[in-house]
Hints:
Keywords: Cell membrane, Electron transport, FAD, Flavoprotein, Membrane, Oxidoreductase, Transport. The protein is of the alpha+beta class. Among the domains are: 267-429, Succinate dehydrogenase/fumarate reductase flavoprotein, catalytic domain (Flavocytochrome C3, Chain A, domain 1, Alpha-Beta Complex), CATH 3.90.700.10; 504-631, Up-down Bundle (Methane Monooxygenase Hydroxylase, Chain G, domain 1), CATH 1.20.58. Helices cover 37% and strands 14% of the residues. The protein has helices at 15-21, 43-55, 93-103, 110-130, 162-179, 245-252, 299-306, 323-327, 337-349, 368-381, 389-415, 470-490, 504-522, 529-543, 550-570, 582-606, 630-633, and strands at 35-39, 58-62, 80-81, 155-156, 183-186, 189-197, 200-208, 214-218, 221-224, 257-258, 263-269, 292-296, 320-321, 363-366, 424-433, 436-437, 450-452, 635-640, 650-655. A hairpin with a 5-residue loop joins strand 7 and strand 8 (214-218). Helix 4 (110-130) packs across helix 12 and helix 10 (368-381) crosses helix 11 (389-415). The longest helix has 27 residues, at 389-415. The chain is globular. The two termini are 43 Å apart. The mean pLDDT is 97.
Amino acid sequence: MSLDSKIPEGHISDKWTDYKDHLKLVAPNNRPKIDIIVVGTGLAGASAAASLGEMGYNVKAFCFQDSPRRAHSIAAQGGINAAKNYQNDGDSVFRLFYDTIKGGDYRAREANVHRLAEVSGNIIDQCVAQGVPFARDYGGLLDNRSFGGTQVQRTFYAAGQTGQQLLLGAYSALSRQIGLGRVKMYNRHEMLDLVKVDGKARGIIARNLITGEIERHSAHAVIIASGGYGNVYFLSTNAMGSNVTAAWKIHKQGAYFANPCYVQIHPTCIPVHGTNQSKLTLMSESLRNSGRIWVPKKKEDAEAIRAGKLKPTQIAEEDRDYYLERRYPAFGNLVPRDVASRAAKERCDAGYGIEANSTNEGVYLDFASEIQSKGRQTAYAQGNHNPSDEEVISLGKKWIEEKYGNLFQMYEKITDENPYETPMKIYPAVHYTMGGVWVDYNLQSTIPGCFVAGEANFSDHGANRLGASALMQGLADGYFVLPYTVSNYLADEIRTGTIPTNSPEFDEAEKKVKDSINFFLNNNGTKSVDHFHKALGDIMWNKVGMGRNEQGLTEAVAEIDALRKEFFKEVYVPGSADELNPELEKALRVADFMELGQLMAMDALQRKESCGGHFREEYQDAEGETLRDDENFKFVGAWEYHGSDINKEELHKEELNYEFIKIAARNYK
């Protein structure tokens, strides 16, 4: 199958508008005749289900949590981008478009990114109308702050709870449709396979996680909005339940999986503490607006800090290496995430890490300068032009508390250290995945009728996502793209009638799911699911993590293949199928992670360049920056499934053509 991205003709500023004007429609009286399944109820899924329900379609929405409010979108802290130029600092739709393409290291599809920038302003209007409590300035107007990879303030935020507030807005819209009977909500249900009839997506097989019952659900179209696959690394900032299963199941049914090696390592995470840790905690990137990142200039100082003989506050200013400000003076602490993460790794690898863990990996995020600066500004604004040091610090801490208070509180509860007094300790960790199911301009996969939204698709972020763009993409897809493109597809379905679930295709899909469940429950293994998941995570982090090379990737492919075979032979899953069984849930998910992990290593191995979050150590310039190969690798790598031997996956290439921007080496100096 050849890849057809269906990008419209015309100038990039007009593509989406002209395209919408010529899409097919479904009349309001025909929409109740059509069923749509939405898998996942985070920002992309909830907004899509609410929008399609409001239009009059019959929607079934599925989530494995006890409520849509538990979706991992709730964990997003820092903000959401939009090109409204409220700060009058030169922002525009084109600048947001350009920053996103550049931030993704010129590996994103131009037309999709421009559409995202176009609708970004509408998202803010929609959310304000829903009552999302965005932060406001002293005059009552919506406030903005900076984020990594940009030189303008375009990020709207709600303290450190932006994802939660946006999800509650989408959930309120979804709840209204549930109350009207247009959306039927299936909580505690997990999709375990896609059902195709005559080549089209026609339904899913789902498991009721409370009773264990296997259910059949049919529809005229299926939307996958199940998030990213960062938990393939075991330790990540993702919720423990986040998984790849829905996306991987449609991949095995014929949906191409694009750029799986593109994984974002977030620079501001609380460092790993011990070997028994099961999750990492993210500190919002917004903190880089006010915090300065540093390590000691002297190795002996770093060693003393790790040994507990020296405190960071005892390190003199001239003995601190503010390495981001030193290396990237134009952007400083606001360089993109991949750049900041690699710089932290470089310092720690060189022996300057400050955390007393098994790897000595950690750097400081210090707010002392901001406390001083904002304290003096506040005192001056209050008429006190000669404040004491105590007054300055007190006012500065109050300013920080108003801006980031809940984040500081969270950090103190986790680490038992007061970040107002002592610099935060941070280190990069797996966060977001830019790769995902390949989709065309309509957000439709290579399976007709199967659409993919939000982090589950690959389309908007290239090799590195700019901070505060995940929420933007999820809501753009759900509120402002899918209602048009799904309707265009469904215009040919108004005479189809209800899709029966007693067909051979549903029989076969249900049998396959039950066989898989029975296999795990009857396997005579001796090791837990977590044992294998941790082993997979170790391979992924060490060989398919921040630094990659040909030898490590080649070893990873072979090691994951061997681990997967051992997993199916030795894994032990207690309990039964007809009950709440978390170990069974994990086993089914880890089985998919095993296959995905191998494909990620294969994808990274074939991409012989460094770009964004994909850093091949063999391909870097003299200053340690990414060295792209635009002549040979300016493409989307979309993989086609060919059976359980992942080595047989076939690579298809979608060439990336940039008509409206000039490709250049990324420079944040």
